[in-house]
Amino acid sequence: MNELTINDIMARWRFIVVFTVIFALVVLIASFLMPVKYQSNISMIVIQKQSTEKIDAFSATKSAEFLSNVFTKVVYTTSFFNAVQDAPFDVQRNFSQDSEKREKEWKKMISVRKANNTSIIDISVVDASRKTAEETAKAIAYTLATNNAEYHGGGSFVEVRLIDGPNTPIRPTTPNLVVNTVVGIIIGFFIAIVLIYLFPSKFISKNKENIVVINTAPSEDGSQKENDETIVQDHFQNVQGEIEFDEEESDIEIDNLHNRISAFNGK
Q1: Per-domain residue ranges for the chain?
Q2: Three-state DSSP class for 142?
Q3: Is the pTM value of this prediction over 0.70?
Q4: Contact, 188 vs 22, CB < 8 A?
Q5: Would you state the CATH architecture of domain 38-167?
């Protein structure tokens, strides 16, 4: 395979543009067919109340961080799931009856993480219904704020408060049409380049063979003297930039040329 240059590739810019646009349109159409998901976000903070007789400020902070780590695990448990379902909010209740499948559905629905070196917990709830996502986020915040004592031994010295949210955008989180389209353009462009590189014969025009004609002409004393070789190089190119070179037809033309030269020398 011949080495390709940037100019060879850019000469096929029309193919690159058309392929990229088509690929991006396919990605955009696929995005429209994807199920719509809404996301609601809340932030909770774990507070370890200070008691001058038992704990100092630094120890209280470290204790709150530890408890926030505990709550990030608690949220996925069956007991917490049941408490959320019993909360006075319009949450999703059509989970699977199978405990294993229900656990997977719940973990797929929510995402929990703790902010580094803080006692803040960020919780996201995703659902096909915007209302259900927001109501579930409210139920989680309510359960953590009112029933947190069931998951630690700090009693009334531990408090969990809602500090942000629920924040639920009006537009769905997924699919993101703009991001998907941009990604489709980038991927389509690189695929077009790879296709040109892998199959250059389909896209890059070829340089055809050289035709060498040896012209022999008589000298003044009647002897045959061979002149310099004349190299004729023709680039056969159709509208698409490529045409096959017919070797058999070329041989006939060369023979005819030699016959004409011989006839001229014989005069």
Answers
A1: 6-33+176-203, 38-167, 210-266
A2: helix
A3: no
A4: yes
A5: 2-Layer Sandwich (3.30)
